[in-house]
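Hi Y.,

Following your request, here is the sequence exactly as I used it, all 260 residues.
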Amino acid sequence: MFRKEDGEETGEARARLERGLRTLARRGGLPADMSIKLLDSHFADALMALMALVLERNEVVNLTAVTEPVEFAELQLLDSLAPAGLPALSRARAVVDVGAGAGFPGLPLALLCPEKEFLLIDSLGKRVDFMAQAAEALSMGNVRTLHARAEAAGHDARLREGFDLALCRAVAQLPVVLEYCLPLVRTGGNLLAYKTVRAGGEIEGSLVAREMLGAARDVEIFAYPDLLPGRAHALYIVRKEGGTPVKYPRREGVPSKVPL
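Below is the corresponding structure, written out as tokens. Let me know if you'd prefer a different format.
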């Protein structure tokens, strides 16, 4: 049954979403077409429709712990869109989201960038089924889904080193994320790991993993307090400079139990 407060919460979420989209549209260096897209009411409509799909399905399948609409707009929709305008995203044509869960960040970014091809990978079949259904419902022809563990995907010859950009959000510590993702990224491509500014110790702790997996020594941190005030969220940008040895990723479960 529809409650008055449900409509009020949805309206507040829409207002919060639109404020965030305006913030993104003001970023320096943002391509003109992306800025226009961020301000287009149809884009906000699509994001709100995605939220509705997630929250409806979440009543029967555990997709997300974030169920309050305003918080959802911030932590799922706007946070997913944080890479908007970054060169790592702008230059990419093939993007893979590893451990995509309910489709974040992959689905919002695929809505923003219809010219790019997205593959969303998750190890839980019910989540993969939802992502595929959501992409179809929103007419997202640039989205494919795959039910697989990251360790298996990294050894699939059809996928290995086949992407310009890997995305990974709320999955694991950085050394583990590197082993999951870098085998899928071609030389010259990038990994965007969604983290927090306070997780900076993971950079030092991942030096060995970066050296072993073909990544650059330096990691760029891109914080966005203007988009999510008080949240201290950040993107860790890791460039891949060389090939990943064929033995990586290691067999299922090992990267998380024995990080590099």
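Confidence is low (pLDDT under 50) at residues 1-5.

Thanks again,
Q.
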